[in-house]
Specification:
12 helices, 75% helix
């Protein structure tokens, strides 16, 4: 019986393009341990999660509706509803109202910090982040920094609309910019409370409900809309010590070119206190939560 021989032809080896060869070489070096990537430090990890939150806005632009619609809605609504009754004309009332409306708008938006964290927990993303070999607070710090950008957008929207309607801050840019920065600092400290609620409560809806239950009395029982001297004595006493009133007084003074140093210092101390107290509590719960 004749043996059948099978001839095998070896195909010529294919060479990768120079760019792919370089990438393959770099990958082999990483695998071989000749060049290991540096571990992410606290700053780079926080910036990474900040970028993640901004990318979510890019892919879901509906998230910007609150920072664009709320300033327009609140400014138009309160200016033209109460302007004639409280100040004689909407334009006159706008000069008093707009700094407070910017404060109220940004404070209302802060609740989405806790809601977003609660959504990540519900979807299981929270557990993935906890398993990463990174600085643990980076997840929350990055989210808060991204929210600060959203707060800045909301502030800009309110100010631009105010300028269109006739608002003219006597303090100019030198007063408006520090005032907005002060709002952002206060909201950064306040957001730690909502982040804590996002870890404690079981759903984003519950976080929203509890957050608004605290925010509504603080914003409406304040000096945002009227002077406290027109209120009953018992309510005036509460309004005077309300942190939102202190923030509004500081912002209103800076925009008017009449800086109230005591109000600014008080706002900074309150912001630092919120961060020092609720920041560690939130991180402790974040690490220990099952």
């Amino acid at each position: 019986m004749s043996e059948q021989t099978v001839s095998t032809k070896t195909e010529p080896s294919r060479r990768l393009p120079p760019q792919d060869e370089a990438q393959s070489s770099d990958l082999l070096k990483l695998i071989a341990g000749q060049r290991k990537p540096a571990p992410a430090n606290a700053f780079s990890a926080s910036m990474l999660f900040t970028w993640r939150a901004l990318l979510k806005i890019k892919h879901v632009p509906e998230q910007l509706l609150d920072v664009t619609i709320f300033p327009i809605m609140f400014t138009l609504l309160f200016t033209y509803l109460f302007g004639g009754a409280l100040a004689g004309s909407p334009s006159a009332y706008l000069q008093f109202l707009l700094p407070g409306i910017v404060v109220q708008t940004v404070l209302m938006i802060t609740i989405y910090t806790g809601m977003t964290l609660s959504q990540d927990i519900t979807k299981g993303v929270y557990d993935r982040f906890r398993s990463l070999p990174i600085w643990a607070p980076a997840v929350l710090v990055g989210a808060l920094l991204a929210d600060a950008i959203r707060y800045a957008i909301a502030s800009a929207m309110g100010l631009v609309l105010g300028l269109i309607l006739g608002f003219r801050p006597p303090g100019g840019i030198a007063g408006v910019v520090p005032a907005v920065l002060l709002i952002l600092v206060f909201c950064f400290g306040l957001s730690w409370i909502w982040a804590l609620l996002g870890l404690l409560l079981r759903s984003p809806t519950a976080v929203q409900g509890w957050s608004l239950m605290f925010l509504f009395p603080l914003t409406f029982a304040s000096n945002i809309f009227v002077e406290p001297t027109t209120m009953p004595s018992w309510l005036e006493a509460f309004v005077d010590v309300n942190p939102v009133s202190v923030l509004t007084t500081a912002v209103r003074g800076m925009m008017a070119g009449q800086t109230d140093s005591s109000a600014i210092i008080t706002v900074l101390l309150i912001s630092a206190g919120l961060t020092v107290v609720f920041g560690p509590l939130t991180m402790r719960l974040y690490r220990s939560r099952n």
